[in-house]
Amino acid sequence: VSSVSAVIPVKDGDRYLEELLDALAREGVEEVLVIDSGSQDRSLQIARAWHVELLQIDPGEFSHGRTRNLGAERTSGELICFLTQDATPCPGWLAAYREAFTLAENVGVAYGPHLARPDTSPMIARELSEFFASFSPDGAPGVQRAGDPTFLSNVNACYARACWEEIRFRDMPYSEDQAFGEDVLAAGWSKVYSPGAAVLHAHDYPPVEFMRRYFDEYRGLREAKGHVEPFALAQSAGHVRRAVGADRRWMADQGMSGAEAARWTALSTVHHAGRKVFSALGSRADSLPAPVRKGLSLERRDDAGAGTSAAASSNGTPKGAPAALPPTTPVQRKLSREVYEVAADVWANGPAPLLEPAPGAADRERLRLAMVIPPFNRGSGGHNTLLQIFTRLERRGHICSIWLADYYGYRNAVWPAVLRREIRDYFAPFEGPVYKGFDRWQGADVVIATGWDTVHATLRLDQCHARAYVVNDHEPEFFASSAEHSLSAETYSYGMHCIAASPWLRDLLIDRYAASAEAFQLGVDHDVYRPRAVERRRDTVIYYARYVTPRRGVPIGLMALAELKRRRPDVRIVLFGTDTIPDASFDYEHLGVLSPEQLSVLYSEATVGLCLSLTNFSLMPKEMLACGLPCVELAGISAESIFGADGGPLELAPLDSNRLAGSMQRLLESEDEWQRRSRDGVEFVASHTWDQATDEVEAGLRRALREREEQAALATQRGPR
Amino acid sequence: MENLQTTQTPTEQSLEAENAQLRRRVDDLETELVEVQARANAVVAEWQERAYWLDRWHLDLNALMRKPGASEFRAGLRAVRSVARFFKRLRRSLSRA
Q1: Which of A590, A606, A581 is nearest to A664 (CA)?
Q2: Do the chains contact at A401 and B33, CB–CB below 8 Å?
Q3: Average pLDDT over residues A3-28
Q4: HSE-up of A104 (CA within 13 Å, CB side)?
Q5: B interface toward A at CB cutoff 8 Å?
Q6: DSSP 8-state code for residue A113
Q7: Inter-chain touch A358–B51, beta carbons under 8 Å
Q8: CB–CB of A194/A99 below 8 Å?
């Protein structure tokens, strides 16, 4: 039989102290230590009358964790019971604790329920009863291990000395028991909830005192466990309504009279609403001004921070020693995984193995194609390209499915059928299924990655004959030095066959990354983008001023337009492509984001288009040309790979705002030049269709399958190593 | 080709025949897989088309019907419906009579 000590921190606790010491004597506790921190009532007299050990400490020295450590150090029992001054053990309390430590080999701590005293309010009585019943639905003692609830309360708990010595209470002003509950399970000990080790105990305070106590408790919880109590008006109102309803049911079960129940209902509403507000404030105490913190705290604490700050001050920093670290802010886990964890998965395990190539698979009429796409919004140009092509592949008889890789959880709230409808509404009438994530992955002849943030997910997909990568742009250029820059550059190094959206991009992938790559030409929807029956103006320059897309070089475009306006004050300038209205040093008109039909009319009406891309050539200049609108683009980047060294129908200008302005001015002022560019542009892009683009991408997908066959044949020839 | 065939041993010929047979079998299986996948895709796509409003409103009927009281609510609806049908039938038979 283990020896038992009880430690009771006391301050002005004479109301129940005598009853408590009587109960401890009845239960047979061998050693009782009362630690008094400045009682002004009869507490000291009672302790002396009961001949228990009495330790008096300065009120300023008190801290829940530190003082209990002191109590444990000053006692000798193998089991140490901690009780508060208002907790009275019920008969059988100690026997239940002794039994608890026999339930498993490594029980470090046990705790028991708090029963309501007869005069306890219905709100507290109900909550206590329901709360503790949740730990033991069948009423039997329960062993809790790592992963189980960490709840622990020093109102009524019993510790194995060996366990306390190993872990000890953190030196914190509040919630030291909650912290111990976490620490003890994390250290491999188990704890036991013992329904038989009950105490009579209830915190019934006047409403304001109760709320201030909650402020302190939730402040302590924030400091100990990082818990931040959520608060939103509608949810909180719902919470209060449900709690009051539960109280009313409990009152009815207790047979409370109507008048009394009505009085308690009103108090219950105040109680739950006040608690909700004060607990939320308590867990955000560090954001409140110090005087407010102090005013709301029952313990009049105005320090800003976590338990660690209390520890630092208690330890004391000698003069001349390095400055103490600031208090840490505990932060709760919010994500189920890290954003780019799939990349770590590829680094750890490599790409999933591909299936053995089936001879002749590349030439089969119908292929099973799975396209992995990143999250999208209406108007996404890259997704439009992908869907224009993929729906045409589907119409050619290929078995197509779409899979959303959403690393950031942008579309968490959108379910698959809605995603599918959005794809159909925003881009193209795709007929196949759309999946979120890969839980239902079923394999494919070719799985197609379509952006840097789909590649790692694609690499982990199994049951595929080949992988291909439709590359719309050189995405590392979208980012400054960053994780995204490095991760996107890395995507070209996994040996996937790349199908690039221009010869320039294809050559870049081959030269810089030694990738296997070919090109396709972006198509134009000629049903939409054609010269419309509107009068062509002779004074209008339109500019795709999408400031939020840095690769569009908008500051350079605006400088060019400012220069043009200086030279030709009569010119009308229209900016479009963004809802944000950019500030400029010249007057202009703004059109915002337009639909394809509206764009076609704008292109048919304007005199000159300005559209800059600092990376891969985009579709927009082609669409302008298709409407007979001459367009100015940057020279020396990617346009030459499509239009030839002289730009063909495009007016190319170097990255110089004066030269760009000169190009626009020439088109505005030279009718012959304008006519030639307009005519050549329509002719040039006539053959650039989505059907042609689909032909090229389909050839690329078949090439990916052939490459696999060739690689496998090569491996067979080499034989095993 | 003829020369090659004439120089093949019976074992080689039988292996080649077996290879050809296996290739045909793989082709058949691949064709079957494509058909199965096409049908499965069509079923899922059709269901997604029909489930649009359920997904839009985040309604998972299976989860909803697992909630306490859902079965009782449904049983109640069925009872109300059967009573309504009874009276409908009664009214019809009375009007015929």
Answers
A1: A606
A2: no
A3: 93
A4: 18
A5: 23, 26-27, 30, 33-34, 37-38, 40-41, 44-45, 47-49, 51-52, 54-56, 58
A6: -
A7: no
A8: yes
A110: phi then psi, degrees, rounded to nearest 5: -135, 155
Distance CA A688, CA A685 (A): 5
CB distance B27–A399 less than 8 Å? no
> Has this prediction a pTM greater than 0.90?
no
Contact A225, A282 (CB under 8 A): no
Closest partner CB to A418 (pick from B26, B47, B55): B55
Token digits for A296?
């709301």
**Closest CB to A433 among B26, B41, B54:** B41
Owner of token pair 């329960």: A142
Report DSSP letters for A624-691, one per residue. HHHTT--EEEESSSSTHHHH-TT-TTSEEE-S-HHHHHHHHHHHHH-HHHHHHHHHHHHHHHHT--HH
CA distances in angstroms from A531 to A31, A277, A627, listed in the order given:
98, 64, 4
Residue A131 contacts B, CB cutoff 8 Å = no
Residue A56, SS3 per DSSP: strand
pLDDT above 70 covers what percent of chain A? 95
Residue found by looking up tokens 């739950």 in the block: A272
* Cα separations in angstroms, A384 against A294, A432, A502, A515, A697: 58, 16, 16, 25, 15
**Three-state secondary structure of A3-40:** CEEEEEEECCCHHHHHHHHHHHHHHCCCEEEEEECCCC
pLDDT in tens, A134-191: 888 888 899 998 888 889 999 999 999 999 999 999 877 677 898 899 889 988 899 9
Angstrom distance (rounded) from CA A493 to CA A343: 13
Q: Do A401 and B41 touch (CB under 8 A)?
A: yes
ipTM of predicted complex: 0.77
> Which of A117, A296, A152, A331 is CA-nearest to residue A214?
A296
Nearest by CB: A417 against B30, B40, B55: B55
Residue A147 DSSP label? T
